[in-house]
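W.,

You were right to be curious about this one. When I first looked at the sequence I had no strong expectations either way, so I just let the prediction run and decided to look at it fresh. Below is the sequence, 448 residues in total, followed by the output.
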Amino acid sequence: MLIRGIRKGVLPILLAALLAGCAHYTALPLTRDIPLAPSVGALQGAAEDHGALSVSDVVTLALANNPDLRAARLKRGIAEGQATQASILANPSLSGAFLPLLSGAGTVPAWNLGVAQDIKSLVTYRARRRAATASTRQVAADLVWQEWQVAGQARQLATDIIIGTRSRPTYVAAYDLLSDRNGKLERALAARTVTLVTVAPDRVALQAARTSLNTLDQTLLSQRHQLNALLGLTPDAVVPLATAPDLPPFNPAAIRAGLATLPDRRPDLLALRLGYAAADEQLRVAILSQFPDLILGGSASSDSSKVINGGPNVQVGLPIFDRNQGNVAIARATRAQLQADYSARLAAATGTVGALLREYEQLAAQLAIARRDLPAARIAASRAQAAFGASNIDERGYVDLVSNRFAKEEEIMTLELALFDRQIAIQTLVGAGLPTIDLSAEQAGSGR
């Protein structure tokens, strides 16, 4: 009676312990609310009295609130779960049977009991674990590379909006000047004091100025919408920006000298190296899986005459047809492809940065020439304005000289924007002022 009582108490405890170690289902319904913030103040990490945002502020908010980054960060949980699964040893198997006596000379029911372990899973265990670890690190590196891209887009859009907004008054002034000139000519044409041939060039110039202003406004609106989407804001939300872009220090010579160490710093290159390491371990797994299926265990049995037998059991697969040759070939090809992908990405990384540095140097030289010529254009426009006020120059000459000043200022702004674009692209590719991944070169190369 005591034994039966103990059994009755132990069984519920064992059952409860088994259930406690199991995962439980929890519902995670999809949201029907649009996950866009209505204002900058509603963003994560935004100050309540934020005021005008600098470019670095925009980058910080983008890294914290970008919807794509938020989703990408959850991939780390998947990779970590896969690594955890790969680190778990295969469970042994337990078999048994109870065979009641139905007829014959026996006196008691027969039974058998056995336990077995798959040895092949133990042979490939370490390689599978290393492959999963490398894959987890690859996901982390890919995430940092995606953060670089988001930060670069935030810098680019914020800088373009700042420069475009700053240059808009020049476009408006040029359009107003030509519009006023065109209005006078149209009235003169109606009075038949000028000919259509005289008016035609001014009409063309006015249309060009209107087109330039409209294009700038369209571009600015599109860029603001893109920036709002990048930050997770509604399209109509207003992002107040500073009047000048603040970017990390830029030293082309230092960047060119650091290209040799770029593979150890670029997250996409580190991710490819980790992917290669994972593929290399998968090849090891495929080769080790050529080891014949081997199951070791032991069993005991009793027949209906109370004769009890026990001993070890061995089950060996015969590799006559399937020697895992297909998986080995797939693993070899995958590793070779990743090796080629890494070489191509490495060549593109260094080549792109080098090309952008050369373009930056060309634009800087062109900008220096334009800035050198600007004072003369401004002096000529100022003198033309004074001469026109004193009736010492006709209106056409005055408009031409002032328009030339506007054109030179617009040229400088266009070159400045192009120069900023190249600088931001280069700094994004080399990771200037951007998050880094905590992986040594040895870890990145081996995945261990």
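Here's what jumped out at me. Strands lie at 93-99, 110-118, 294-302, 308-316. And, maybe more interesting for your project: Residues 174 and 406 are 6 Å apart (CA to CA).

Coffee later to discuss?

I.
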